[in-house]
Amino acid sequence: MTDTSQPTTASITVGDSELDLEVLPATIGSPGVDVSKVRASLNAVTYDPGFANTAGTRSAVTYIDGGAGTLRHRGYAIEDLAEKCTFLEVSYLLLFGELPTREELDNWTTSVRSHTLLSEEMKRFFDAFPRSAHPMAILSSATNAISTFYEAYYDPKSADAFYQSAVRLIAKMPTIAAWAYKKSVSQPYMYPRNDLTYIESFLNMMFGLPVEDAKVDPVVARALNVLLILHADHGQNCSTATVRFVGSSDANLFASVAAGMNALWGPLHGGANQAVVEMLSEIHDDPDMTMEKAIERAKDRDDPFRLMGFGHRVYKNFDPRAQILKRFADDVLSRVGIDDPLLEIAKQLEAAALEDEYFVSRNLYPNVDFYSGIIFRALGFPTRMFTVLFAIGRLPGWIANWKEMHDDPATRIARPRQIYEGPILRDYLPITER
Ligand code: CMC
Question: Three-state SS for 25?
Fold first, then answer.
């Protein structure tokens, strides 16, 4: 099924040479102009810094319409998935293309449950970090490190190796994340509990102690389920493209995902949720940093300050995830009995920005990170764990994209070109003559 209103012809002229280009139809959204023969035929390369106009792949995982504020996974609306599914159900959908039947979901859940433990040797790995280590550094290092226990599953062409690696990553990620946190507070590492759900077990590893289990509030568990689903995939963003890039050299799934985590860590990507709460706290705590001043500073070209959690490469109308979270934030905070002044500041900041010509004319709206941090905070997570939570959520998306990349030989091995601007050829000068 394709959109028949899409153009079917394209051409490019470089100097006196013209080349007809194939147009690859999309089922919905922008079709692709195939420029793969441009260099060979015209001896020129296409220039698209940041790849904002370039489809590096065809994909059937996630559809985004930034103008309309639409996000769908495998054709299902994010609003439906967030309301009706568990995170493991959405993970299955992303990885295997269909929502699972009851039996498939039970088998999938059992598989994940059977691999939640980390090897005991990993405890020493966690011990080696300083207490002050950022949990994202521990998360990506530990994800790479656990690959050393699964060398038998490195073959990217083996369907079984893929399944075994994917299950282990999804099963162990909450354990790694919780241990990264326990390290920072000098508390004993907690083991996963297979009598609990995926989310409950994670919360128990985070907030429980060997002497006393955490009392997992169902409201908190439900909220975390929704938050993880809202982060589960987002097309070809910076971290997902990194996972594909690294995986395209046949690097194993663990190594590829660890690379994606490092890409996610930056404050312009997944690190924004931490940056938002830090910004809101600054506005709250510093009498000189009023909301008006924050808006003015964000608009000042000479000031590096930006409104964190505002703007998006793709969404130029609204981010549907932010809309769900804004509604959700009030509900979650009142149910867990928290009155967080940062939520009020966030709402006022959003209202002020949405009335400001600078933000309106640039289509800058709150993104997923604007409200997620406030909810993570209300659920009891420390600020430095926010991006880790984003990573747990994004994991199935990374894995689904890694798999899709391997199923399409055309996307291997990634090798963008460049326009060379350096010196042509220089004579070597001995060091004494430079
Ligand atoms: N505060 C102030 N000005 C902004 C902001 C902001 N948050 N975002 C964009 N602008 C301005 C920017 O200065 C530019 O102005 P001008 O046209 O005068 O030069 C204009 O808006 C367009 O900005 P851009 O950087 O070209 O936009 P982009 O689409 O390339 O950048 C972005 C997207 C997310 C990097 C950027 O909006 C940003 O830095 N936002 C803050 C960080 C943030 O919230 N990141 C989380 C992204 S969503 C989670 C995820 O999936 O990673």
Answer: coil
Length of the chain, in residues: 434
Ligand 1 centre and the CA of 306: distance in Å? 8
Mutate to test the pocket of ligand 1, among 313, 315, 374, 389 (most ligand atoms within 8 A of CB): 313
By residue range, what is the domain housing residue 224?
A: 86-409
Closest of 8, 24, 17, 59 to residue 40, by C-alpha: 17
The residue whose C-alpha atom lies closest to atom 26 belonging to ligand 1 is 313
Nearest CA to ligand 1 atom 34: 312
25 and 99 part of one domain: no
Cβ neighbours, 10 Å, residue 298: 21
218 plus 115 within the same structural domain: yes
CATH of the domain at 281: 1.10.580.10
The C-alpha atoms of residue 122 and residue 149 are separated, in whole angstroms, by 10
Q: What are phi and psi of 312, to 5 degrees?
A: -160, 140
CATH classification at residue 31 = 2.20.28.60
Residue 309 CA, closest ligand 1 atom number:
44
> How many Cβ atoms are within 10 Å of 434's Cβ, its own excluded?
5
Residues tagged active-site = 312, 369
Centre of ligand 1 from the C-alpha of residue 31, in Å: 25
Pocket test for ligand 1, best of 268, 302, 314, 374 (most atoms within 8 A of CB): 268
- Report how many domains make up the chain: 2
Say whether pTM exceeds 0.70.
yes
Which residues are near ligand 1 (CB < 6 Å)? 234, 237, 268-270, 272, 298, 306-313, 362, 364, 367-369
Distance 312 CA to ligand 1 centre (A): 6
pLDDT in tens, the chain (434 residues): 555 678 889 999 999 999 999 999 999 999 999 999 999 999 999 999 999 999 999 999 999 999 899 999 999 999 999 999 999 999 999 999 999 999 999 999 999 999 999 999 999 999 999 999 999 999 999 999 999 999 999 999 999 999 999 999 999 999 999 999 999 999 999 999 999 999 999 999 999 999 999 999 999 999 999 999 999 999 999 999 999 999 999 999 999 999 999 999 999 999 889 899 999 998 999 888 888 889 999 999 999 888 999 999 888 888 999 999 988 888 888 888 888 899 889 889 999 999 999 999 999 999 999 989 889 998 999 999 999 999 999 999 999 999 999 999 888 788 999 999 999 999 999 999 99
- Rounded CA separation 230/85 (Å): 11
